[in-house]
């Protein structure tokens, strides 16, 4: 590729990036609010993109959000605020239609990553079994229902009672944990990994490793792509944020 073409592409990428807003506040903090704890900038309440107040029921979560705002330097960069993005989606979206979000997670469980196994080579088959079988066994005990496994990419339907059990497992989740479960499910391709992380059956590292068995196998064979590794690191930060919400919510539920 010529130097001129590289320069043109770099310029095009810069022009496509949205201009970031400058930091306009001295400090972020939290204040008690009717529904919990509000995030404030110089005493004024933060609002979501949907113009709803950023208020969470947990002091720890609101403090973490305020920390993200305080970490901004010259400009406000949403890509460095994964907790805020999840909370915004919870307030603007999940709170409005939690049933639809729950249904999306249940739909993922109908074609869950850990239910689709490779036909070969043997080492990959063994590695999938080592990472995924314990999660599957735990989920089946937790839900009181069994999942059907498949080899290859041919779609298989899970029993209706299994999907119903998954729906029941999510029914009592608050808005913020449901939003976090949805994020984990999307990032990992597995509602069962998300459920295991929710209940503390998996650590964050274990959940991430289970989600990338196939990718890690290919990287070992062919080498990792630099851009793909950058994207993977960003996705992990999203997972870390979602996992922290699940942990906070579990602590709050345990002390309620």
UniProtKB/TrEMBL annotation:
The keyword Transit peptide applies. PANTHER family: ATP SYNTHASE MITOCHONDRIAL F1 COMPLEX ASSEMBLY FACTOR 2, ATP SYNTHASE MITOCHONDRIAL F1 COMPLEX ASSEMBLY FACTOR 2/ATP12 PROTEIN, MITOCHONDRIAL PRECURSOR. Signal peptide: none annotated. Keywords: Chaperone, Transit peptide. The lineage of its organism: Bacteria, Pseudomonadati, Pseudomonadota, Alphaproteobacteria, Hyphomicrobiales. This is ATP12 family protein. Belongs to the ATP12 family.
């Amino acid at each position: 590729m010529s130097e001129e073409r590289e320069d043109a592409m770099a310029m095009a990428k810069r022009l496509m990036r949205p201009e970031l807003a400058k930091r306009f506040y001295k400090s972020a903090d939290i204040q008690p609010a009717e529904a919990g704890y509000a995030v404030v900038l110089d005493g004024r309440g933060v609002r979501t993109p949907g113009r709803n107040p950023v208020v969470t029921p947990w002091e720890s979560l609101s403090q973490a959000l305020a920390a993200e705002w305080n970490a901004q330097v010259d400009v406000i960069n949403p890509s460095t605020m994964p907790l805020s993005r999840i909370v915004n989606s919870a307030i603007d979206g999940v709170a409005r239609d939690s049933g639809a979000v729950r249904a999306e997670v249940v739909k993922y469980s109908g074609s869950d990553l850990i239910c689709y196994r490779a036909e070969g080579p043997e080492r990959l088959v063994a590695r999938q079994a080592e990472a995924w079988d314990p999660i599957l066994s735990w989920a089946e005990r937790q839900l009181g229902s069994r999942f059907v496994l498949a080899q290859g990419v041919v779609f298989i339907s899970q029993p209706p009672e299994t999907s119903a059990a998954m729906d029941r497992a999510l029914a009592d989740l608050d808005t913020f944990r449901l939003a976090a479960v949805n994020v984990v499910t999307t990032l990992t391709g597995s509602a069962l990994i998300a459920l295991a992380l929710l209940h503390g059956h998996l650590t964050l590292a274990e959940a991430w490793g289970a989600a990338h068995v196939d990718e890690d196998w290919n990287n070992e064979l062919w080498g990792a792509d630099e851009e793909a590794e950058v994207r993977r690191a960003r996705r992990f930060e999203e997972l870390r944020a979602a996992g922290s919400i699940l942990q906070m919510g579990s602590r709050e539920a345990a002390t309620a």
